[in-house]
Specification:
The complex is a heterodimer of chains A (109) and B (114). Chain A is mostly beta strands and 109 residues long. Chain A has no helices and nine strands. In chain A, the strands form two sheets. A five-stranded mixed β-sheet of chain A has the order 1-9-8-3-4, with no helix packed on it. In chain A, strands 2-7-6-5 form a four-stranded antiparallel β-sheet, with no helix packed on it. Chain B is mainly β. Chain B is globular and about 40 Å long. The relative contact order of chain B is 0.33. In chain B, strand 7 and strand 8 form a beta hairpin. Chain B contains no helices and eleven strands. Classes of the chains: A mainly beta (109), B mainly beta (114). Chains A and B meet through strand 3 and strand 4 of A and strand 4, strand 5, strand 9 and strand 10 of B.
Chain lengths: 109, 114
């Protein structure tokens, strides 16, 4: 199963943009890049996913490197409610999501 | 739309007891998954199913069994509970197609084995 590498933690100030990086150098051509976040005592929540092109939705943007070996989740204006653990995951062909440790995002008021 | 519903939400078992966790989804999703999450850790895949009547092993399948007799339900069984199975269990589901769909997770079942 393909693996991802993320920083253990990051800090941001409220209302500023946040760029969460993820490395996935062993990604295969059919792996989709998924991002989820988990708030304390809750189940993971879908944020965004993509294959090759950059993606935008109401929650965030996903920037995918041209060689697909890295990606960046962009939160345009962080709020206190965005404090969570963010997971970057590769979905393989049978559809499994194999979680890593994720990045704990702290948002300062 | 209820999404993914897990029952029960909390349970305390004695070592050696058995129990079944139920996951139900109302989104007509083909794929369903069971994960466990230990304190301070990421989620680990236990078993998964790519369709009614099919199941497959994930990263940590030992001590668990699963069944998918109906498309909307995925059951996780513990035949003889052990303290090492104390964890929070999450169920998830998604469509077969990769295009345009994320995974929907339940709110979890917190299991304590004493």
């Amino acid at each position: 199963d393909a693996k991802t590498t993320q920083p253990n933690s990051m800090e941001s100030n409220e209302e500023e943009p946040v760029h969460l990086p993820c490395n996935h150098s062993t990604i295969s051509g059919t792996d989709y890049i998924h991002w989820y976040r988990q708030l304390p005592s809750q189940g993971p929540e879908y944020v965004i996913h993509g294959l090759t092109s950059n993606v935008n939705n109401r929650m965030a943007s996903l920037a995918i490197a041209e060689d697909r070996k890295s990606s960046t989740l962009i939160l345009h204006r962080a709020t206190l409610r965005d404090a969570a653990v963010y997971y970057c995951i590769l979905r393989d062909v049978p559809g499994k999501l194999i979680f890593g440790q994720g990045t704990t995002l702290q948002v300062k008021p | 739309n209820a999404g993914v519903t897990q029952t029960p939400k909390f349970r305390v078992l004695k070592t050696g007891q058995s129990m079944t966790l139920l996951c139900a989804q109302d989104m007509n999703h083909e794929y369903m998954y069971w994960y466990r999450q230990d304190p301070g850790m990421g989620l680990r895949l236990i078993h998964y199913s790519v369709g009614e009547g099919t199941t497959a092993k994930g990263e940590v399948p030992d001590g668990y069994n699963v069944s998918r007799l109906k498309k909307q339900n995925f059951l996780l069984g513990l035949e003889s509970a052990a303290p090492s199975q104390t964890s929070v269990y999450f169920c998830a589901s998604t469509r077969q197609s990769d295009s345009g769909y994320g995974y929907t997770f339940g709110s979890g079942t917190r299991l304590t084995v004493v």
